[in-house]
User: Which sequence fits this backbone?
């Protein structure tokens, strides 16, 4: 968006597709270098090198990196303790993560954690998506700026709804949402039992386990879609033809609570940009949602089931909430308007370097 509006010259580098010489030329060309979730001891050295070259270095974080659930696959390289769980089916304790087993190693993970502290202190500026992360990382940096996750309304455009004879309820999630799988299974099992063929559960992402365990959904009740490239994701999301979206975040699991409190409102914003009403967990990321007006908020499984039911049974409510949510996001989370916030941070970081 910065490039599109002509606010600055922009180049994006990708270490997976670009050669070392090409990347070095780009870094040499730049005034401001933005890194996504920088981490690792090597990164501390590279930041110092770039700053010695007169570059401002900005780190952007949209997750609370070391507070993730042990069920998150990334725990392997970010977890800071051994984890033992008790199986609900047998009651027996089972080792989930053990230092030195299956590639899980506490020492390098701890070094990564310490490197994050050093990186936060050395960056020219830190940007993040919410106040919760700013509060946690503020212990190591007094130069943190909140840049709210925003929508490019030129890309996210609603399509005319097709009548399929069913109310289509959608969830977009990656395997990082393992803590929400059981929650969603419980909720959707009750919704399916209540409404039967009147509803269809649409899943976009790489979530597994929905059809496993004592509480599960049948594959015939689910319409699955794989993740796609970011360039076509807005069209893919619109083409799902959803009537209702859900934004569940587990508030009961202490292992994932802080991680979920550090999320943003983005999932709700994406639904809203496509004029899809959403039911969201009542937790910090969705404090911006006005219950009953721009979305519905739920504190537990039963409230989720009830509020999904309200939307299933009322087309008027779906339309009213979808319209209000769209207008709220167009006003407050519109990237074309909010991009100036990014520019202010980058300009300030560069001015500080040149002072």
Assistant:
């Amino acid at each position: 968006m910065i490039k599109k509006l002509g606010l600055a010259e922009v180049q994006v580098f990708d270490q997976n597709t670009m050669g070392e010489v090409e990347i070095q030329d780009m870094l040499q060309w730049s005034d401001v270098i933005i890194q996504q979730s920088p981490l690792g001891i090597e990164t501390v050295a590279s930041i110092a090198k770039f700053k010695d070259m007169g570059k401002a270095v900005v780190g952007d974080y949209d997750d609370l990196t070391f507070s993730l659930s042990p069920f998150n696959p990334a725990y392997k390289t970010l977890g800071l303790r051994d984890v033992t769980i008790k199986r609900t089916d047998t009651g027996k304790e089972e080792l989930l993560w053990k230092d030195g087993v299956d590639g899980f190693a506490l020492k390098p993970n701890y070094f990564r954690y310490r490197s994050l502290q050093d990186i936060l202190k050395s960056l020219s500026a830190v940007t993040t998506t919410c106040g919760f992360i700013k509060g946690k990382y503020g212990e190591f940096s007094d130069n943190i700026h909140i840049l709210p996750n925003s929508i490019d309304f030129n890309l996210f455009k609603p399509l005319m709804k097709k009548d399929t004879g069913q109310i289509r309820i959608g969830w977009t999630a990656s395997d990082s949402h393992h803590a929400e799988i059981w929650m969603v299974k419980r909720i959707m099992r009750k919704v399916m039992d209540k409404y039967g063929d009147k509803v269809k559960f649409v899943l976009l992402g790489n979530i597994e386990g929905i059809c496993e365990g004592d509480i599960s959904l049948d594959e015939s009740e689910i319409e699955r879609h794989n993740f796609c490239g970011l360039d076509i994701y807005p069209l893919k999301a619109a083409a799902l033809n959803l009537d209702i979206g859900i934004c569940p975040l587990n508030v009961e699991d202490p292992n994932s609570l802080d991680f979920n409190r550090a999320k943003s409102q983005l999932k709700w914003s994406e639904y809203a940009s496509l004029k899809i009403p959403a039911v969201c967990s009542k937790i910090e990321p969705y404090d911006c949602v006005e219950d009953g007006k721009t979305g519905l908020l739920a504190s537990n499984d039963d409230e989720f089931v009830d509020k999904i039911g309200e939307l299933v049974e009322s087309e008027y409510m779906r339309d009213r909430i979808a319209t209000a949510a769209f207008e709220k996001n167009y006003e407050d989370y519109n990237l074309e308007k909010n991009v100036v916030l990014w520019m202010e941070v980058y300009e300030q970081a560069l001015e500080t370097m040149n002072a």
Notes: DSSP finds twelve helices and twelve strands in the chain.
